[in-house]
Amino acid sequence: VAENSLFIDIMMNVGIIFYAAHETGDRTLREVAMRHTLTTQRVLVRGDGSTAHEGLFDTESGEFLRQSTHQGYRGDSCWSRGLAWALYGFSSCYEFSRNPHFLQTSEACADYFITHSPDNGVPPWDFNAPADSRSQVDTSAGAIAAAGLLRLARLIQDPVKGHFYWSTAIH
To answer: What is the pTM of this model?
Structure first.
């Protein structure tokens, strides 16, 4: 079976496609951005707000095959940088589309990121890696998540949760 991949990394940039669609009035670009975001949401974001790094599809049928990774601990783990990209990306997609499901997804990713990060706020490279390797931190994931939390803080309706996201980002 020939496979094609969808990476969570793209969520960091899909807002650019929404922006271009908005600025040019190009409905095709908006559809591409929506389709990508909806597919990513469906196959890479798990019910607990964690994410997979990569989704593999059958190139013939388009059928989703499995979650995988090239940079996380394993296909069913949660690579922290990918999760940070999802947190940021879904809030950006909400900002352009006003699709409430994108905001909910960003919040779920934020909540997972926050509850699984150590007290100092700097996440391990993979949240599900063995304990002895979780001491390897990913400061890029922390910075990306902070940017996503700042965006999310101004988009959500609940001022208490918004302040929590803002203060967590500052920390």
So the answer is: 0.94
